[in-house]
Design goal:
Layout (H helix, E strand, L loop, with lengths): L44 H15 L5 H13 L6 H11 L5
């Protein structure tokens, strides 16, 4: 026997989910009265701060073209040097590495 879930009315005692049998009363709880509380949204302080900073960040250029061009020239000429102590200090300061 094949049961088609869309039509189960032919089976005794079966009914479609969410539908009451004919002649039965449906009781509604206070929660299902159709009145729902209004949606609420609360933002953290950090979210508010970030949203206030977004216009300022959008005004900044994505790439500092002048700096990139200058560094590319130094690299091409073999003049670009990295100070390992300065680099390590900045990595420590930024929290990228631990002591």
């Amino acid at each position: 026997m094949k049961i088609d879930r869309r039509d189960i009315t032919g089976l005794s005692g079966a009914q479609r989910p969410g539908l009451a049998r004919p002649g039965t009363r449906v009781q509604r709880s206070a929660e299902s009265s159709g009145v729902q509380p209004p949606d609420q949204l609360s933002l953290s302080d950090r979210t508010v701060q970030v949203s206030e900073l977004q216009p300022a960040l959008a005004a900044l250029p994505a790439v500092r073209a002048d700096l990139v061009a200058r560094l590319k020239e130094q690299i091409a000429r073999g003049e670009y040097r990295v100070d390992p102590h300065r680099l390590a200090g900045r990595l420590l300061q930024a929290g990228v590495i631990d002591e």
